[in-house]
């Protein structure tokens, strides 16, 4: 009820009460007719004033409909306030969750940065420093969000958004720095790691037949190995051969003879390079069994290298080459025993075909290889010639099917057990030849092919090493020297190390 109406109502009531009291008092005294008229008039006036005040107050009171409408309006306001309070509470929860997620992401990024190597520490600290520039979260406000003004609520919301963006930016910067370092590390690793070899089956090589021998295009070979091709020419400026090369590999071929070089080591191929319509070709058997194993970084055939059989050539009734007091059977056994000692020190298991002045037949030596199943077979020999001039080191391996001996022309058609390992035979011969040349300073007479019983019938990769010529007086004296024998052994060990790298 409005205050003015209430006051009017109370005044009327007081007036009516006063008149009533006065009337009651007057009734105790006899009144004249004039007094009675005055009394009646006063009573009527009081009654009229009270009725008027009551009527006015009643007229200005709200109706039931108005009260119900007001109550509904108030309920709507209460519901709106409750909804606003709920929205504020949800925003506060979302804000806390976003801050927690951002903090967790920043903590994770920092943990990853701390785990990096010392070289990455500066960049990690920089990224963490970026995170340190993020505006700090607002302190706990004792005033609940429901009591915040719209302006304060908007300000808190904007601060939260800015903090979240700053944290996300710092995390993104850290991730970008980590990605950059990983890319740099990967690039460094790629430069130092062994390049991946291409599978021969995926190579596209043009091929031709010439005199029943299959040839492959040498330019195509160079392309598949990522090498550069060039012709070599003689003094008359005519093509004498070809070369394929890059920074670490180089193979030279002759268009006249079978000899060539691979990475500076002389290699005898099975056939000379062929020029057909002014285009260069090499025999497919040379490509598969001679060239590919020497250009490849890793062998496609994973073989072991724990047990090595050493065959000291000749012995007993077979003295081998003789030059005065120099006997091949003596020196081959001495070198074989020195090699055995060094290999056993390195942890290899060594099997000797002979340990004294005995003569196992060639068939018996091959049988020992088949029985004990070594991972490698190395036969030690000394060379000899009717010409006293030749000197130097040669390493032999079995003749591949489809090829010929280095000093022969008959094509091999029957497969032997050693031909299962043609590629490994080639790499083993190359590595041992290379190692011995470096250790002894001897003359390079190349890796060659010859039909030798023990290497052809071996059940593992096998080579026969001619450590020098006893027919050459100077070289015979070297071979008899323990110091030179140790150099030979060191060279063989270096070759085995190189071959071991080829296997892994």
Short descriptors:
5-stranded antiparallel beta sheet, single chain, 17% strand, alpha+beta, Copper Amine Oxidase, Chain A, domain 1, 17 strands, 504 residues, 6-stranded mixed beta sheet
Order of helices and strands: HHHHHEEHEEEEEEEHEEEHEHEEHEHEHH
In angstroms, what separates the terminal alpha carbons?
A: 102 Å
Tally of contiguous helical segments = 13
Q: Main sheet, how many strands, which sense, barrel?
A: 6 strands, mixed
What is the CATH homology-level superfamily of the largest domain? Zn-dependent exopeptidases
How many structural domains can be distinguished in the coordinates? 4
Which class of secondary structure composition applies to the elements? alpha+beta
In CATH's first tier, which class of the largest domain applies?
Alpha Beta
Q: In what range is the share of β-strand residues?
A: 15-25%
Strand order of the largest sheet: 13-10-14-17-15-16
Oligomer: single chain
Low-confidence stretches: 21-29, 123-143
The CATH architecture name of the largest domain reads 3-Layer(aba) Sandwich
Radius of gyration: 54 Å
Could you tell me the mean pLDDT?
Answer: 84
CATH topology of the largest domain: Aminopeptidase
State the helicity in percent bands: 40-55%
Shape: rod-shaped
Count of distinct strands: 17
Structural account:
The protein has four domains: 3-61; 66-192, no CATH class; 200-295, Copper amine oxidase-like, N-terminal domain (Copper Amine Oxidase, Chain A, domain 1, 2-Layer Sandwich), CATH 3.30.457.10; 307-503, Zn-dependent exopeptidases (Aminopeptidase). It contains 13 helices and 17 strands. The protein has helices at 3-26, 33-60, 64-115, 121-132, 150-192, 218-224, 284-295, 328-345, 362-372, 422-440, 453-456, 473-480, 482-503; strands spanning 207-210, 213-217, 228-233, 239-245, 250-254, 259-262, 265-268, 274-276, 279-283, 307-312, 322-323, 326-327, 349-352, 376-383, 393-397, 444-449, 462-469. The strands form four sheets. Strands 13-10-14-17-15-16 form a six-stranded mixed sheet, with helices on both faces. Helix 1 packs antiparallel against helix 2 and helix 8 (328-345) crosses helix 13 (482-503). Residues 21-29 and 123-143 have low confidence and may be disordered.
């Amino acid at each position: 009820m409005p205050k003015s109406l209430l006051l009017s109502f109370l005044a009327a009531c007081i007036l009516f009460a006063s008149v009533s009291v006065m009337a009651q008092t007057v009734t105790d005294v006899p009144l004249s007719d004039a007094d009675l008229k005055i009394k009646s008039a006063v009573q009527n006036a009081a009654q009229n004033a009270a009725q008027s005040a009551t009527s006015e107050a009643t007229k200005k009171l709200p109706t039931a409909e108005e009260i119900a409408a007001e109550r509904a309006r108030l309920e709507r306001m209460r519901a709106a306030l409750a909804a606003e309070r709920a929205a504020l509470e949800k925003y506060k929860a979302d804000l806390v969750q976003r801050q927690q997620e951002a903090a967790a992401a920043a903590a994770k990024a920092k943990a990853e940065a701390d785990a990096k190597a010392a070289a990455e520490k500066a960049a990690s600290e920089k990224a963490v420093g970026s995170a340190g520039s993020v505006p700090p979260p607002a302190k706990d406000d004792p005033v609940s969000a429901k009591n915040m003004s719209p302006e304060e609520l908007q300000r808190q919301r904007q601060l939260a958004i800015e903090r979240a963006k700053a944290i996300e930016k710092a995390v993104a910067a850290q991730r970008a720095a980590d990605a950059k370092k990983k890319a740099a590390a990967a690039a460094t690793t790629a430069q130092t790691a062994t390049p991946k070899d291409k599978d021969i089956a995926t190579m596209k090589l043009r091929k031709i037949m010439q005199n029943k021998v299959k040839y492959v295009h040498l330019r195509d070979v160079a392309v598949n190995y990522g090498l550069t091709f060039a012709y070599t020419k003689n003094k008359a400026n005519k093509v004498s051969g070809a070369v394929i090369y890059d920074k670490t590999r180089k193979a030279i071929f002759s268009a006249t003879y079978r000899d060539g070089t691979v990475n500076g080591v002389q290699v005898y191929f099975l056939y000379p390079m062929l020029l057909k319509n002014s285009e260069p070709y090499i025999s497919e058997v040379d490509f598969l069994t001679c060239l590919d194993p020497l250009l490849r970084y890793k062998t496609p055939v994973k073989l072991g290298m724990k047990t090595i059989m050493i065959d000291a050539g000749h012995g007993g009734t077979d003295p081998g080459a003789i030059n005065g007091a120099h006997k091949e059977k003596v020196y081959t056994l001495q070198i074989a025993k020195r090699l055995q000692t060094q290999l056993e020190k390195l942890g290899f298991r060594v099997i000797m075909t002979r340990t004294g002045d005995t003569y196992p037949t060639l068939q018996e030596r091959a049988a020992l290889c088949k029985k004990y199943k070594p991972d490698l077979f190395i036969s030690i020999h000394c060379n000899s010639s009717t010409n006293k001039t030749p000197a130097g080191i040669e390493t032999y391996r079995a003749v591949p099917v489809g090829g010929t001996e280095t000093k022969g022309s008959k094509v091999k058609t029957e497969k032997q057990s050693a031909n299962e390992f043609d590629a490994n035979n080639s790499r083993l011969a190359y590595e041992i030849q290379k190692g011995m040349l470096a250790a002894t300073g001897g003359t390079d007479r190349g890796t060659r092919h010859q039909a030798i019983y023990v290497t052809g019938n071996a059940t593992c990769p096998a080579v026969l090493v001619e450590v020098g010529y006893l027919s050459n007086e100077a070289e015979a004296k070297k071979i008899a020297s323990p110091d030179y024998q140790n150099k030979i052994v060191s060279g063989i060990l270096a070759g085995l190390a190189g071959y071991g790298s080829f296997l892994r």
